[in-house]
Amino acid sequence: MRIIMLDDVDRRILRLLQSDPAQPLPELATLAGLTPARVTRRLDRLRQDGVLLGQRAIIDWRVLGYAVEVSLRVTLDKTVPRAFDEFMDAARKVRAVIEMQTFLGRVDVRLSLIARDLPDYQRIYRAEILTLPHIADIEALMTVAQVKHDESLPL
Amino acid sequence: MRIIMLDDVDRRILRLLQSDPAQPLPELATLAGLTPARVTRRLDRLRQDGVLLGQRAIIDWRVLGYAVEVSLRVTLDKTVPRAFDEFMDAARKVRAVIEMQTFLGRVDVRLSLIARDLPDYQRIYRAEILTLPHIADIEALMTVAQVKHDESLPL
DNA sequence: ACTGAAAGAACTACTCG
DNA sequence: CGAGTAGTTCTTTCAGT
Questions:
Q1: Residues B78 and B125 in one domain
Q2: How confident is the model at residue B84, as a pLDDT?
Q3: How far does B40 lie from chain A, in Å, by closest CA?
Q4: A24 and A80 together in one domain
Q5: Which long-range contacts (CB under 8 A, 24 or more apart) does B80-83 make?
Q6: What is the pLDDT of residues B67-106, one digit of tens each?
Q7: C-alpha of A76 from chain center
Q8: A81 in the same domain as A20
């Protein structure tokens, strides 16, 4: 993979986008001290280079009634060769799972799931998580707050 | 906090926004089987209700040369009353930290940090993480892949 | 080759029916 | 709630540095 080197202009634009990617081009240009045309061209290049993959809406789950978020660390059964793929494919389909990452180390997968309340969590945990294939062990931690979330970055 | 109940129309719109919040209104309307005006009004209400908090650009760190992502679980020193606040305030300022969440349980904080390579990670870990106040224990796991990331959701 | 300006097309917000 | 209009914003092209 080719590694993209950013200059100061790129960095300024990316920082502005992080705080709000919906900002109109003229405003973005003003804040970055550039002309709109220049910002457009930079954005095109960043997209083309695969730096900017797109954007995503930020939804407040608590407002929608999802009061419980739990982080699960899953260790898989290493005696089954295809355990990893089969687990991932199945877990990906669980609607309550909003995030999933794999690791190098003792723990294989971490996933975050949300539920309306504790009974709802119990139901999901028993019916949809524990039934996933090839689980050797699970450790759960209840999330209290998402404190930092991709805002300031090492640009 | 008032909990917002969504109907099918809201859900359809939110699902479309999750895949790409930059979609033009007319296209969104067509995909949702609605008129643009109706979509606008729903969006306004979702924003007003605090369901839609905004949007965020998705940046591919690997392309920018950040090849290493590590997930750290931090346990704090419970003998210091203000350990939690002081640790969080300090950790928030570390640029390499791209994500941070707090827990209810044995582990207090989990944070993700990115680095260019393993030497870079070592440097950050020693100079910027281990120097954070009130750490009792840290456990690190190297992230291999971010598999699911807020895309399909329990709507 | 890269930048800035301008015109045309597209989109959004607003008002009215 | 839908339709139409006015105001913005985006895109593309062109000329200049």
A1: yes
A2: 94
A3: 15
A4: no
A5: B80/B134, B83/B133, B83/B134
A6: 999 999 999 999 999 999 999 999 999 999 999 999 998 8
A7: 22
A8: no
Same domain, B27 and B75: no
Q: Report chain A residues whose CB lies below 8 A from the CB of B20.
A: 54-55
Residue B110 covered by a domain: yes
Query: Looking at residues B30-40, what average pLDDT do you find?
Result: 93
Candidates A25, A43, A20; CA nearest to A35 is A25
Q: Indicate which CATH number applies to the domain containing B19.
A: 1.10.10.10
* In chain B, % of residues over pLDDT 90: 80
Question: Amino acid letter at B133?
Answer: P
Query: Which residue has its C-alpha nearest to nucleotide C14's C1'?
Result: B37
From the list A3, A48, A46, the residue with the least C-alpha distance to A21 is A46
Q: How far is the CA of A35 from the C1' of D16 (A)?
A: 16
Q: Find tokens 């300022």 and name the residue.
A: B93
Residue range(s) defining the domain that contains residue A31 = 8-48
CATH number at residue B121: 3.30.70.920
Our count of domains for chain B comes to: 2
B150/B155 Cα distance (integer angstroms) = 12
DSSP A5-49: PP-HHHHHHHHHHHH-TT--HHHHHHHHTS-HHHHHHHHHHHHHT
H/E element, B57: strand B52-59
**CB-CB: which of A57, A114, A145 is closest to B21?**
A57
pLDDT at residue B149, as a whole number:
66
pLDDT class of A140 with cuts at 50, 70, 90: very high
- Asked if the Cβ of residue B130 lies within 7 A of any atom of strand D, the reply is no
